[in-house]
Design brief:
The complex is a heterodimer of chains A (80) and B (451). With 80 residues, chain A is an alpha+beta fold. Chain A contains 3 helices and 3 strands, in the order βββααα. By secondary structure, chain B is of the alpha/beta class. Chain B has 2 domains: 32-51 and 311-431, Lyase, Ornithine Decarboxylase, Chain A, domain 1, CATH 2.40.37.10; 54-310, Alanine racemase (TIM Barrel, Alpha-Beta Barrel). In chain B, helix 2 (54-69) packs parallel to helix 10 (276-288). The chains are: A alpha+beta (80), B alpha/beta (451). The A-B interface holds A 13, 15, 22-30, 33-34, 50, 52-56, 60, 64-65, 67-68, 70-72, 74-75, 77 and B 2-13, 324, 328, 358, 360, 385, 388.
Chain lengths: 80, 451
């Protein structure tokens, strides 16, 4: 699972898709996930890092993760 | 130390003109009500929970009293029981000096139970039984007659009464606000109201004491009250000059709006609703133009409810779940629904998170816990991302919810009142299964069930 190569992201959570012209804002946790996805970090590693860094239960993270990935897919931001 | 977590989310940014009215109103979390922490209230009394601020109740009364008493010398407020008849609320207003305004025998008994003298109870409404009328008449209460059948009902029982009933009629009229409320009372324009007054005086079996109207609810026009006072004043003048029966009071009813925002309104209620001072100015000016001298100036009675209590009530609730709907909208499910927040059918109640949040917000639909499609607290509210277990504060819920709430699917929750010293009092206990079922009876042949 990779972020499309042409997607531009900023540290503050601004996302721009030059292919469609769409822009998005991401909250801090989402911005961090996107940064790591962009670097090519795998899902398992990102989740592990989130569990270590944030006050969150594994089950809750798993549920949120699935929903977030769905959002990225719907927004056409992931490599198919 | 680990960082605070919030569900990851992205939100599409839409180009186009900026909304000049802004989109976000809930900038600060509401962690306290009158100095008492929301979390501690919910920890002790559960969720959902209604909270009433005694300080706000008293301040609202005192502000409204000042608005009128500084403009007109002879005024009296009567607490509208149907707006919120929890005894604790009624007693706050009675301590402040309000009489009671009731619309049923049940409310009448509640007023007596709260220690209101019979002659300070106003008995409105279209249905009064013979027994209720006899009690009210014997107590010297102000009986406001709604229709001719009630007028004749009173005449029929007049021989059984210990004293002449003190009566007024309710008058309906065109005040320039549509639709005209004409289902209650006698019409002014077609002469029905004066006919009723003539009959009362001619009968010699009742003491005609005043006139009453209630021109609508959530009125946004002060001019409508000006018109109402003018028309009631005309009737009062005719009572004095043609019927030789000067009146003691003019009861202008209620109807002043709170600052809640009506559903579908373009602008928020705080920007569109006239203040009590503006209503007082319109009503008092018109009263003074009626031409009464300083010795026979009629008492002005006001039956304000909503404006006195709405912003003194809060509903605390907990987030049960988050969902993403098939159309992409975010949905938040709360543990308080339309069963306890009846007014969410009319209002977009302001809702604030009760804990810190990040700057990221999203338009979301707020659902209650009922397994019913109608259970929507807000069709669209721009709020931070709430986690399961987070608390929210729903504002301005003091009027009508604690009387029109339904025992439907869930039981009704605790209601607490925070007094002026910050002490919390339980004023209505949460319902229990035993409480709900104590009125039920199971026929003998249905007692045994085997599955």
């Amino acid at each position: 699972m990779y972020l499309r190569k042409n997607i531009a992201t900023s540290e503050s959570g601004f996302i721009f898709n030059p292919a469609t012209g769409d822009s998005f804002s991401a909250n801090p946790v989402a911005a961090e996930i996107l940064r790591q996805l962009k670097q090519g970090t795998g899902a398992a590693q990102i989740k592990e890092w989130l569990l270590e860094s944030y006050e969150v239960e594994p089950l809750r993270l798993e549920r949120d993760w699935d929903e977030f990935i769905n959002q990225l897919k719907e927004a056409n931001l992931l490599e198919s | 130390m680990k960082k605070n977590y919030e569900s990851p989310v992205i939100q599409k940014m839409n180009g186009g003109l900026m909304n000049k009215f802004g989109t976000r109103t809930e900038y600060e979390p509401v962690k306290q009500i009158d100095g008492v922490s929301v979390q501690s209230l919910m920890a002790e009394f559960g969720s959902p929970l209604f909270v009433l601020s005694e300080r706000t109740l008293r301040r609202n009364y005192q502000d409204a009293y000042r608005a009128f008493s500084t403009r007109y010398p002879n005024i009296q407020f009567a607490w509208s029981y149907k707006t919120n008849y929890l005894n604790a609320v009624c007693r706050v207003f009675h301590q402040e000096g309000s009489w009671a305004e009731v619309v049923s025998g049940f409310e009448y008994q509640k007023a007596l139970g709260n220690g209101v003298p019979g002659n300070k109870i106003i008995f409105n409404g279209p249905e009064k039984t013979n027994e209720e009328l006899k009690l009210a008449a014997d107590n010297g209460s102000l009986i406001h007659i709604d229709h001719f059948d009630e007028l004749f009902q009173l005449l029929e029982i007049s021989d059984q009464l210990k004293r002449k009933p003190r009566v007024a009629i309710r008058v309906n009229m065109d005040t320039g606000v549509y639709p005209v409320w004409n289902r209650f009372g006698f019409n002014y324009e077609n002469g029905q109201a004066f006919d009723a007054l003539k009959k009362i005086v001619a009968s010699e079996k009742m003491e005609l004491t005043g006139l009453h109207c209630h021109i609508g609810t959530y009125m946004l026009s002060t001019n409508a009250y000006r018109t109402a006072v003018k028309k009631l004043g005309d009737l009062a003048w005719k009572c004095k000059t043609e019927l030789n029966n000067p009146l003691q009071y003019i009861d202008i009813g209620g109807g002043f709006p709170s600052t809640n925002t009506l559903r579908g309104s373009f602008l928020p209620g705080t920007d569109t609703v006239p203040s009590v001072d503006e209503f007082a100015e319109a009503i008092s000016n018109q009263l003074q133009e009626l031409g009464y001298g300083s010795t026979d100036i009629p008492l002005l009675i006001l039956e304000s409810g909503r404006v006195m209590v709405d912003d003194a009530g809060y509903l605390l609730s907990t987030v049960v779940a988050n969902k993403r709907l098939s159309d992409g909208r975010r949905a938040t499910i709360l543990d308080a629904g339309v069963n306890v927040l009846f007014t969410s059918f009319w209002y977009d109640h302001p809702i604030s998170p009760a804990q810190d949040f990040t700057h990221h917000t999203e338009d979301q639909v707020l659902y209650g816990p009922l397994c019913m499609n109608i259970d929507v607290l807000r069709q669209s509210a721009n709020l931070p991302l709430l986690n399961r277990g987070d608390k929210v504060v729903v504002h301005k819920v003091g009027a009508y919810n604690m009387t029109q709430w339904m025992q439907f699917i869930h039981m009704r929750p605790n209601v607490v009142m925070i007094d002026e010293q910050g002490k919390v009092h339980l004023v209505r206990e949460a319902e229990t299964l035993a409480y709900i079922e104590q009125q039920e009876r199971v026929p003998e042949h249905l007692e045994k069930i085997s599955l």
